[in-house]
Amino acid sequence: MTPPVAPVAPSAAPPPHEDGADQAERVERRWAALSIVILVLLVVLAAFAGLRQAAMPQSRVETADPRRLHLEGEFIDSNLGSALEADGSVTVRGIGQQYSFTPPCIVVPAATPVRFRLTSADVTHGFLIAGTTINLMLVPGYTSSLAAQFDTPGERLMPCHEFCGTGHEGMWGRIRVVDKTTFAQMAANSRRLRCVE
Ligand code: CUA
Questions:
Q1: Helix, strand, coil percent values for the chain (each to nearest 5)
Q2: pLDDT of res. 15
Q3: Which of 2, 10, 52, 138 could be joined to 125 by an S-S link, Cβ 3.0–4.6 Å?
């Protein structure tokens, strides 16, 4: 005799079809709202950043009037080259113009903090020292500044790497890194140093 089948307890009825659809729709709406919030946030951030940059240009921008470089200020010819500062560091000032650098050969000491300060007299040029991470744009109207240090003496090429006209390929300079003592001796004789051939 088979035992009587226990009556199946009435289980909770599965949710009606409408409820599942409603829930899916709620989730979809929530995601849609979230993505709209993210979009709005990004637009607000982009607008804020743009307006802020337009209203407050970088405080560090330094200008140099390309028409007056040779007449006055930091980039007059007699001030170009490497200068030994009171604190022992070296400041190098130079100009890029179609199609050369002034000075065409820069001399700096090894193992010494060097600051480059450069500008352009005409169009945008590139300033790159081969084999290093030194890479600047020389933009007319602005002073480009970069701190660097060379560990070992040697000579490196300094090509213009921004197309600046028909003579661009021929726009090259050189940088000569000499040892500290040699540089100090050179600096004793001259206020602004360039390579001596
Ligand atoms: Cu200067 Cu290319």
A1: 30, 30, 40
A2: 56
A3: 138
